[in-house]
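Posting here for the record, re: shikimate-3-phosphate.
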Amino acid sequence: MRQRFRIQPSTRVEGHIGVPGDKSVSHRALMLGAIAEGTSHVTGFLPGEDCLATMAAVRAMGIEVVQHDATTIDVAGQGLQGLRAAGRALDMGNSGTAMRLFMGLLAAQPFATELFGDASLSRRPMERVAEPLRRMGARVDTTNGTPPVRIAGGSKLRGISFDMPVASAQVKSAVLLAGLYAGGETSVSEPAVTRDHTERMLARLGYPVQRSGSTVTIAGGGRLVGGPIAVPGDLSSAAFMVLAGCLASAGELVVDRVGLNPTRTGILRILELMGADLRIEESPGGVGEPVGRLIVRPCRLRGIDVPPELVPLAIDEFPVIFVAAALAGGETVVRGASELRHKETDRIRVMADGLRTLGIEVEELPDGARIRGGRFRSGTVDSAGDHRVAMSFAVGASRAEGPVTILDTANVATSYPGFAAEARGIGLDVVVTGDE
Ligand code: S3P
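Prediction output follows.
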């Protein structure tokens, strides 16, 4: 039997927790650490399956990564020219970030690489990265637009000015990583603000990055110098617990040392617009990435029209937002979020199906949804193997009229190993059954 969650209703959410390290920052710590000169000591690393796929790939290309404990690693960087051919195709697992960022990083290497992934990743669009890389002179082939991806290697790249058609931090990062190896300047302009972890980490490791309005520019041929990298807690993981704290009828939840990068905090702004009782305390001294603590108390959420400019700043949190909307008073409308159809699953479709199964009225729109708030009834929801869908329904199910089962939950380990135990620790009744 595949892994599933079984959730019984509960009312109180309380505790003082941290959340696992940020997935986006952990991937970048490995990749940029690998091409820096000298060792990068990384603390707070996320030992989730996605980042472990990146770790395995970096090691396969000759980089020594010493894991002192689950979350503390040393990456022995060999400089921009230090990667070696892996001698085999590299498995990116479920991770779109790993695949897209490696496409950029590997486009200019002197060796060829093949990248593949699991069934979900094998359906996701890769031409959005391949196309600008080809414009830079790389030879990159996708399989009808999707993985496996083959990079010929040995190409001499030239800088480009790229007007990114979709707001995607992965595409931006891939082009910038290729730009490290390109002749001249590489600029990326984004149609809306996306997460800037790559730019921040490049700058932190000593690589000059210019930002002007919505454009980021780097010049090829510089160097990165390894150093300490403190990975903050993942706000995208904290979001499930914050939702639990909002939906509870008693208690108070504190989430400590969580990343508060303003390109990621859309979820907090959206929950606040919905009436969440949320205190955000930024701590002084966050290096590279702002960090702080969140204090959440129960509240009555209300439906809103989600402001379109907040969509890219909350792009991974829409499963959480859909559940919040389903249990809020009144109607919530999400528009301008068609990118959700290209995540680990088509998140508009999978969330709408799951919400309907639990008795919620949802109108699916091409680029979002219209959700009428109500109450979850008992039932069985298929997460379709999407980690964030599974965790969002698990939290919402704590407020259902009766028990809820969520199917196909093993992929929660891609981003939040230990989620069910942590959820039980703050008062939710989540039991894991089937294969781990
Ligand atoms: C990520 C960027 C986002 C996000 C993903 C991680 C990153 O994807 O959904 O989980 O680390 O750059 P897009 O940039 O494609 O929207």
